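User: Earlier you gave me the apo prediction for this protein. Now I'd like the version with zinc ion bound, so I can compare the two side by side. Same sequence as before, with the ligand SMILES added.
Assistant: Got it. Here's the input I'm using:
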Amino acid sequence: MRYTNAFVFVAVAMVLLYGCVPAVDETNSQENKTDPTIVPEPATPIPDNTTIYFCKDYCSFVQGGENDKLEYNQSDKSFFCTCSDYSGELAAKTEITPRDLKLYGQKKVWWENMPITYQIMNEDECGDYEVGQINRALEKIEEAADGIVKFAEVDQDANIELSCEFIKDCYSKKIDIRKEEGIIYESEEICSHAAGTAQITKLEGFKIKKAKVTLIGLDGFSETSGNGASGFYIGSCGHTTVEVHEILHTFGFGHTNNSQSVMYHQTELVPYTIQKEGACIGSDRIIDQEIIDELLFVYG
Ligand SMILES: [Zn+2]
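And here is the structure of the complex with zinc ion:
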C-alpha cells in the first residue's frame, strides 16, 4: 500500500510539475491542453500470453501483417493489435475483446458480420432443384442456431459464393442380357465422386470474410421437379446433407467421426452406385448438438 500511495503521489507531483515546464513533445502538450484535470491512468497493463499470441497469429493471417504490435487503449481498457508490413505500412488493426480471446482460446475462426450474405453464382445452371436445396440448407442452419445465424441473399460481393458444377460421364446404365439364363440384368451406376467442396477464401485474423462452395451434380440429367431426375438428386436421396455440410465448412467446422452428424467425413463423397430401394431410409444426417452448441457460443 505504501508503494502505491507513493506512486500516486509522485505521479500527481509530476503532473503538477509538468504543467510548469514548457512542453517538449507536441503530442503530450496537446493531450494536456484538451483536459488538464485528468490524472494519468496507471501504467499500461502487461498483456498475458493469450493476448500476445492472439496478436501474432492475427497478423500472420493478414496480408502484409509481418509485424505485430500490441497497444493499450486506456479509455476502452482493452488491447489493440496492429499489423504492419516491413515498411511500417498499416495492414490491419483490431480491438482484442474478451470474447475474441475466449474464442481464440478454442482456436476458432468465425464469420464477423451477420447476416452472412450469399450469392448463387450460376443459378440458371444449378436449376430449380438445387437452388431449392441450397435455400433449404441455409434455413436448416438458421433454425438449428435458433435464428442467431442468419443468411441474406445478395447480388454481388457476397460472403459465401455458391456455384454448381457438373461431372460428365459419371452415370452409366448397363443392360446385360444372358440368353442362356433367360434373365436380363439391368444396372445403373455412378462414379465415385465428391458431391461438394468448400473453402474459406479470405480470412482477416480469425474473422472469416469470404468463402466458396461448389456443389457437384451429374451432367446429363434433365431438371424436372420432384421426381429425382436432377443430377444433384442422384446419390443424395434428396437430402440437403451435402449442402449443409459444405456451408458448415465455411464456418470452420471440420469433419467428425459421429456417423449421425452432417459433418461426418463421408457425407460429401458419393462412393456408391445408384441407391437401391430402401437405402435412403434413415440416411439423412443431423446438425448435431456439438455444432449447435458451438454456433450458439460463437454467434450468441
Ligand atoms: Zn467435408
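For your comparison, keep in mind: The chain has two domains: 49-107, 116-299.
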